[in-house]
Amino acid sequence: MLSLQVLKESLAKMVLIRRFEEHSVEAYTQGHIGGFCHLCIGQEAIPVALSLVMSPQDSVITAYRAHGIALTQGLSPRQVMAELMGKEAGCSRGKGGSMHMFNVSKRFYGGHGIVGSSSSLGTGLALAHRYSKDNGVSLTLLGDGASNQGQFFESMNMASLWNLPVLYIIENNGFSMGTSVERGCAGGPLYKRGEPFGIPGALCLGDDFIELHQQLRERLEIVRETSRPFLLEIDTYRFKGHSMSDPGKYRTRETLDEARTLRDPIQRLQEYLIQEHHCTPEALRAFDEYAQDCVKDAVAFSLDAEEPPQEALWKDVFVTTGDSL
Questions:
Q1: Angle 4-29/45-53 helices, nearest 10 degrees?
Q2: Burial of 283 (0-12, 13-18, 19+ CB in 10 A)
Q3: How large a percentage of the chain has pLDDT more than 70?
C-alpha cells in the first residue's frame, strides 16, 4: 500500500514530466530543438511507477520516447532540456538529442532510436545481471509497434532458453506511429506473445497509477525470484502525435477529447487524492507551480548554455581503418 506521502511525491513527478514535455513543444516550435522529438504526454505514470519499484542493482532501457524515464532516473530537467537543445551541458553532451539519453550511474542505458533495439539490448543487460550474480533485473521497455520486430521474438527465445532476469514491458499506447494496434498487430493481446517461448504475461492499465505500481512491483519480484523472463503489457494512451512532426490526423477530435477526459493518469491520481485522502485542489496546484518553475529554469539555462566545441565531433567515437584490422 502506497503512503499518502509517496502518492503526492509521485503526482509531483508526473506533473513535472507533463510540464517538461509541454515546454519541449514550445521550444521545438521556436526552433530551439531540432531533429526528432517524441513526447510521453499521457504516459507519465509509467516512468514514475518504474522508479518506485526498481532496486539499485536493476537496469532500465527504453526506446526513443525517453524524456520521462530520463527525468526519473537521476537526470535533472536542466540536463535533459540541454540535451534536447544540443548543448554541451546535456546528459549526452548534446550529441544524442531526444532519442539518446543515458545515465549509467543510475543504470539507465537509453534512449534508442532503432525500433525494437531496446528488446535485444535489454536482454543483453539481463545476461550481464545473470553473469555477475548481482540479483538485478533488466526492465526492458518497447512500444506496441516494436513488438512486431523479429529481434523481439529472438530476444524472448534467448531469454527463455538462458533463464534471464528480464521484465519486458510493452507500452501499448494504441498506435505504432499512425497505425492502430488493431490494424498492425495480429494474433491477439500483445502480452501473450511470449507464450510460445514459455514466458508468462499480463496486462495492466497505465492510467491507474496505483494498479500500475502494484503490477510492476509484483511482476518485477517474480522475475527477481525466478530469474525467468516475464512480459507485461501496459495499456496506455499518448495525447500527442508519434513525434512532433506527426499531426495525428488518424484520430478524431472526439476520440482524443474522450481519452483526455477518461485516461489522463495525472487527473485520475489527483481525483483519487481528493476523494480518498481529502487533499485540496489548492494544495495539489502547488505541484504544478513548482514544476513550471523548474522547467522554466531548465529552458533558460539551456538557451544560455554553450554548444559542444568542434573537437567534440571526434570524441567518444571509435574510428578504424583497414590497416588496423
A1: 130
A2: exposed
A3: 99
